[in-house]
Specification:
mainly beta; 20 strands; five-stranded antiparallel β-sheet; about 5% helix; about 240 residues; eight-stranded mixed β-sheet
């Protein structure tokens, strides 16, 4: 019993009855725990032939017109994947890979053991998402990816176009000459605690990157209309 003093008072006062010989013991209460799952963690995809595809998870999301909560990564990453932090397999839900959007999302298959939270790992620690917004020309932003960690730089008006469409760019600089490498795809793009977008890819040489790479990303303004919102908490 959590509070034996109150229970004893209730018995004495006649508010509830106990059989003769009943012993009242105190305990600390039942602990209901779940593992928090922030964004920005490692994603591991497995192709049908057994090949491995390593990416980074982005911001956590919720369906706009539904009750599902989940995690995200880049759309070009393999759909059949798991969260490397927990080792839990993920259930693929939907992807968008055109018109400058490169994203997919999944739900956890671990029942009520995992709490999808409105937080993300930024390379130094876990940060709570406090909002989401568009990206301005010349804005100083950062990203996190499993290969290059947190890097930062300024956006510019130029875009990078491939088969997925046109994407925003974060420029290389002397502090961060390599803004992105393979494995960073899907990672969060942000400024402090504000969600801005999701890593798409890089330039700087193909297939072997040179010493300088710019990072390209999907802004949330392009992705948000696709039936999901950023910044959620739920038991999934």
């Amino acid at each position: 019993m959590k509070d034996p003093t109150s229970a004893l008072a209730a018995i004495v006062g006649g508010r509830f009855r106990a059989a003769p010989g009943t012993q009242i013991e105190q305990f600390d209460g039942i602990a209901l725990t779940a593992t928090e799952v922030p964004g920005g963690q490692n994603y591991r995809g497995t192709f049908s032939n057994g090949d491995i595809n390593e990416c980074t998870r982005g911001f956590n999301v919720k369906q706009t017109n539904g009750s599902l909560y989940g995690v995200t990564t880049a759309g070009h990453c393999e759909n059949n994947g798991r969260d490397e932090t927990t080792g839990v397999s993920l259930a693929f839900r939907q992807e968008w890979v055109s018109n400058g959007v490169d994203s997919q999302w999944h739900t956890f298959s671990g029942g009520n053991n995992y709490l999808v939270v409105p937080k993300f790992y930024n390379g130094a620690g876990v940060v709570t998402v406090t909002g989401a917004q568009g990206v301005a020309q010349g804005q100083y932003i950062c990203k996190y990816g499993r290969s290059t960690g947190q890097t930062c730089g300024y956006t510019d008006p130029y875009t990078y176009t491939d088969s997925y469409g046109a994407f925003y760019r974060m420029n290389s600089n002397s502090t961060y000459p390599r803004q992105s490498l393979e494995g960073d795809s899907g990672g969060p793009v942000f400024t402090v605690s504000i969600a801005l977008g999701q890593v798409h890819g890089r330039d700087g040489g193909n297939p072997t990157p040179g010493p300088v790479t710019n990072m390209y990303f999907t802004p949330l303004t392009a992705w948000a209309p696709n039936n999901v919102t950023v910044g959620v908490t739920c038991y999934c």
